[in-house]
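Listing S7. Sequence submitted for prediction.
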Amino acid sequence: MQKTEMRNPKTTHIDKMDTASMIKIINEENYNSVKAVENASEAIAKAIDIVTDAFEKGGRLIYVGAGTSGRLAVSDAAECPPTYGVEYGMVEAVIAGGEKAIVRAQENVEDQAAQGEADILAKNITAKDVVMGISASGNASYVVSAMEAAKKCGATLLSLSSNEDCRIGKISDVHIFTDTGAEVVTGSTRMKAGNAQKMVLNMLTTCAMIKTGKVYENFMINLKPTNVKLRARMIGIVSDICSVDGETSEKLLEENEFSIRKAVDAFGK
């Protein structure tokens, strides 16, 4: 039996626990997600370097997942343009069931292998691209089929699962195995497995963006002034980097197309 489907001996009577005890045991188990990611750091680093190389050559990172895995992938992909100023499409997510599966669970679609192939091919995959299959079990047919189709197009394959011996791991170039173990509620992989997936995806895109120059020191250098909060943040960033007051910072930005990088360069930093 796969680890993600096993019963957790620490929670066999969670239905009889009081609220405080439930919270305690869930939080204790959540630490296993962090440890699982730590233990997978070597594979994560390899994946980051592959994605970085793809970005530098004009390639894309395309996630493919079903259920919770797909929704986490959609979230990570959607946050890259506003955070790092990159084009939509540089990081994309393909989810079984399409857009409607983002807000409403479509449990049957993860078994639709033919649809997985069709959906990934619709992205016009090339050898420059990296396709990452994400599945807690590692065996969702939709994800496996999509990865196999991407491989035929020459894409580099990454995979992320909480089971080591799985189908997506066997066909990928780098497999990230986060050993989160049995869930608090048996089989509910939106919990520890999902925690680990979110952390890995954060690391993958964050580090690749840093390595391709989208971050200055530890600042988001490519922000856009699309709301009051972000405009104020940009002014604060320029003030911090250039050691000037807010008024001077705002003037620098206004004179340089409200680009932090251009404003800093113009200041001579």
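Caption to Listing S7: primary sequence and predicted structure tokens for the chain studied. The two ends are 58 Å apart (CA to CA). The longest helix spans residues 19-39.
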